Amino acid sequence: MSRTAATTYATPESQAADLYDRFRLPVYRYCRGRLRSHDEAEDAVQSTFLRVFAALQKGVVPECEVAWVYKIARNVCLSRRLGWARRARVERPHDLDALEDRLAAPEQERPEELGGLRDALAGMPDRLRSVILLREWQGLSYAEIAESLGVSVSAVETLIFRGRRYLAEALRGAVEPEPELLAAA
What we know:
By secondary structure, the chain is mainly α. The chain folds into two domains: 12-91, Rna Polymerase Sigma Factor, Chain: A, CATH 1.10.1740; 109-184, Arc Repressor Mutant, subunit A, CATH 1.10.10. The chain has nine helices and no strands. The N and C termini lie far apart (83 Å).
């Protein structure tokens, strides 16, 4: 049975489930043809249908469901490929010796600094901690973070700014020297 945009659904959830059932495999094949691997294509399919669901919840009524779903899949694939290109420019060192100098492990571990970082991260609001970890730990771009959290890129920029400021203030307080150490100096 062919469904059109005129088909009525009880909820956006039921419409999203129907679209997923009908278009999951074709969208996977489409994404697989444009991305590097099976895993990348599966991630793109998930992102596509998350965007479909979010749009349906906001009241979007697609005129042609198949074209609409494929357009979203196309944008997801383009976004991923642009992310690769941006990371490739940053991650490909031209001078491996310079990279080795920059990334060399510290000669002496400073557990008090790491402890302060752990405490600062633990004390952060969940939303700020999430964006900081996605950006600094996982290396995601602002666009990828925005996509994964379902917010705008400008919201991600604001959250990262606030998260970094929170960490800096927390670490400044955690790294302050003890008063008795100052007196002994």
